[in-house]
Amino acid sequence: MQKPTVSSVARFMGRSIFLGSMAASAAFAQDAPATAEVENADIVVTATKRAEPVRDISASVTAFDEASLENIGARSFVDYLTRTPGVVFNQTVPGNSTAIIRGVATTTGIAQAQGTTGYFINDVPMTEPFYSGGIPDLDTFDVDNVAVLRGPQGTLFGSASLGGAINYQARRPDLNSVDVHVRGTLETVAHGDEGYSANAMVNVPIVNDALAVRGVLSHRSIAGFVDNIGTDDDNSNRTTINGGRVQVTMKPADGTDLNYLFLRQVEKTRDAGGVEPELGTFEKSTLIAEPFRYETNIHNLRLDQDLGFATLIATATHRKKEFSGTQDFSTFAGGALLDFAPIAFLEPGKIKGDSFEVRLASPVGERFEYIVGLFHDRTSEKISNVLDAPAAAGVFGSSVLLEALVDIDAKESAVFGEGSFRVSDAFKITAGGRLFHTELDSTTTTGAGPFTGPVTTVEEGGSSETGFSPKLALTWTPNDDVMVYGLVSKGFRFGGPNIANDPVFEIPSQFDSDSLWNYELGTRLTLADGKLLLDGTIYWVNWSDIQVTQRSPSGFTYTANAGKARNRGFEAGLTWRPIRDLTVQSSVTYLDGELRRDFVTGAVVIPEGTTLPGASKWQTATSISYNARQAKYAPLLSLSHRYVSKAPGELTPSPQTQGGYNLFDARAGATLGHFEATLFLENIGDVRGISQATLGLVRGPIDYYVRPRTFGLTLDYRL
């Protein structure tokens, strides 16, 4: 693997330090949460698999707690990830939208491979080893915190976290207090229709200090704004999200905590909102609707046992996903099959997985701290690919033109550990690693049919790998107001099989795993008696054997390993509270992510120096909020701005572009007793920002837009 030379790193860091010197460091939300209370900035997260204040962690972490999310009106990924330094959120269909961290991606969509960003719920991995069965976008209502970890997290979190990880922590039951929170929202979307949402939480202690139950229900009806002129359906991209969870916490003895979590969420989109630019701003034209559905179910049991010298944490999780998607393929193969139109490409799938982890963590604050653990996961995926044309039944005796069933059985086992030793009061050394073994077996069964011939074929494949992901960090903390750290870490992800079979082009049957090295230098400053936080990171990433989604000359999609990439940049920002009730926050991100070697896809060369998909060079986020919590009616006023520069949507010679837009939002609220009312106006300028752009498999260029101007009212009741 090619490492950066000392001179190249020095040249880059010299330029970057100049740009980021506003903090002598950099990175606003990186380590400081988006909160209106600077003195309460130390949200406790589990970014290191132990509970630690976020600003004590020698890594790039952004944390949002429930209060900070409420201040910006965040309900889903798009509301807070777009405000997080180093993260680009490619909003498309709910459940099918990806986040890219530090530009580590070769597609802005779902690829036929493991993703580069890890998604976790209560530390439970939700990223599949081969193909995503949906990314559950949980409502932030009653969340404890959401932590965004930038840089590879392979040492503690395993595969699929090449670029970083997003960890959602649900709030645990309160063992002593009855708690009720109800929320309702009504909103109207320009060029679209109306939407609404309802949330409810009830916490009930069954036995004080020993047993409690907490339940959460959420419903959201998201307004549509895209008209499908082919099916004559206005505002066709309407989405409903129904979800809920139940948590039971039991404390049978001092030092023993048992927690059970059941979570379920279903996301249903009536018709994917990808528009065709040549038709009109908010128009698409398909012969059939393109609905998507994602369902997620989780059962998680966790034991926390205080052993005195350390804490034992043991978790067992069973997860199940079901998904289905439909796309209009009537013009497939250059329109050669239009006589059989409409033609639908159907992709239903089921995923089951079991994860087990046991770890031992020493108390925080000692001269030597450690965490060691064992991890095992087994996941099975069953995915169908069906090309269906009802009109073809009279000719071929069946409407199915093509059917392929893919069975995946994957395992990941690991031993991991991390230790920190304080050489002195100011210096700390942290070293860790993960010894892992992965296995993936695949069986692809292609049924007989008009496209495949009269014989059913079965192809089997497999991959197996043993590797090690190390991590080393040096931290200098001369006093409580200054921290500087340097970090080197490695990440990896699964290899896998290719499903497609092109009769005129030899598609490789397998693709290998890929990995990257991350080098970063970060700092955090606390100034002006805690009223000013300046935080930041400069980083350099070398990515080898990158997995790239490609297309054969006949248009079939497959994955291959294609050379190297290099990403570098900085994340800088501040949180300033000049007076008690006024908070100003600002962040800036610079990213330079590009290929470092030519590669060939089909008959086309993608040259060295090509910008990676979704790798916007610049992002900024700024907010000013006034929240007089101690005053009568506790008035809240806030204004925020987000900017993301243009970036290619795909890794192709002439890609569609996305980004390049500014968004302004405003909020105003007040509290009276147990009730709180908040008015909000999002995308004030009604900007036509493109959140994802792609050259579709069949219909040509497809754009997904950010939601148009939205006005709404939220009412909260807290007991």
Automatic annotation (TrEMBL):
The record's InterPro entries line, in alphabetical order, gives: Beta-barrel_TonB, Beta-barrel_TonB_sf, Plug_dom, TonB-dep_rcpt-like
Matches recorded under Pfam families: Plug, TonB_dep_Rec_b-barrel
Which stretch is the leader sequence? 1-29
TonB-dependent receptor-like beta-barrel domain location is 248-683
Subcellular location field: Cell outer membrane
Q: What residues does the TonB-dependent receptor plug domain cover?
A: 54-165
Give the superkingdom in one word. Bacteria
What are the record keywords, sorted?
A: Cell outer membrane, Ion transport, Iron, Iron transport, Membrane, Receptor, Signal, TonB box, Transmembrane, Transmembrane beta strand, Transport
How does the UniProt record describe the way this protein sits in the membrane?
Answer: Multi-pass membrane protein
- Primary location group: membrane
**PANTHER family per the UniProt record, alphabetical:** FERRICHROME IRON RECEPTOR-RELATED, TONB-DEPENDENT OUTER MEMBRANE RECEPTOR
State the family it belongs to.
Belongs to the TonB-dependent receptor family.
Protein name from the UniProt record: TonB-dependent receptor
